[in-house]
Specification:
The protein has 287 residues and is α+β, with helices and mostly antiparallel strands. It has 2 domains: 70 residues, 2-Layer Sandwich (Beta-Lactamase); 169 residues, Histidine kinase-like ATPase, C-terminal domain (Heat Shock Protein 90, 2-Layer Sandwich). It is 48% helix and 25% strand. It has 7 helices and 11 strands. It catalyses: ATP + protein L-histidine = ADP + protein N-phospho-L-histidine. Its EC number is 2.7.13.3. Pfam families: HATPase_c, HisKA_2, PAS_9.
Amino acid sequence: MLQAGLTAPQVYEALWQTLTGGKVWQGELHNRKKNGELYIEAAVIAPVLDDSAQVTHYVALKQDVTQRSLDQQALQASLQEKVALLHEVHHRVKNNLQVMTSLLRLEAARSAEPATQRVLQEMKGRIFAMALLHETLYRSSHFSSVDLAVYLRQLASQVLRAQSARGTAVRLVLDLTALNVGMDQATTWGLLVNELLSNALKHGFPDGRAGVVTLQLQPGMATGQWCLSVHDDGVGLPADFEQRRTRSLGLQLVSDLVRQLGGTLDIGPGPGALFAVTFSPQVPFVN
């Protein structure tokens, strides 16, 4: 066995300090065979002491781990390649969704029909919710899960800014506890919160009325349950709210999204309006 010169000097220093201290050293060494071939060996070296605690010789157990090391390097390189690919995928999806929101904004500006403008703005908000999730994942090192509190905080702030541009004097209160969920569930939550906040800001505060909208995400009463709620102190729900639920695309979408989450939707009495969803978080997939 010949030294290949690839093992750092610090490794040998630590090896001898350990052995001269009467302790067992273990680690990896880069060596060269007599035929010139390089290899990596995992070694366990122990000093043998006599009755006076003096080192008489050493015993070593060694194993050629060259192939294992090469496999680990290949696996790491493959992992880095996949991470880079996922970054690029989320980046491209986010950019494409942002192009769609820009097109909808242009079409809304061109239209002279208030109803058409309203529909296009609502579609823009829904697409933005999905684009923001991909941007959050793109900026993160984790692709299988997202902190729902961080994501919803960004989304809620953007929804409020969009409504404030139309003269809404409403304050947003956020009470969000950190909760990691899978990407599929985060997408559904983004769409759901976008609908609930948009409805509260649009219908709860007519004629520029001031008020407060509160978004909460907290553990529920039962073990493993969580509750997300949107509450406002606006004018409250109309008397014919139940009839309107069947005709409103936004409220139908809310019901469908809650069902997709496997949750339950409770609509509280006034004053104001309260929508609360109780659900079980989706356990993120761990690579």
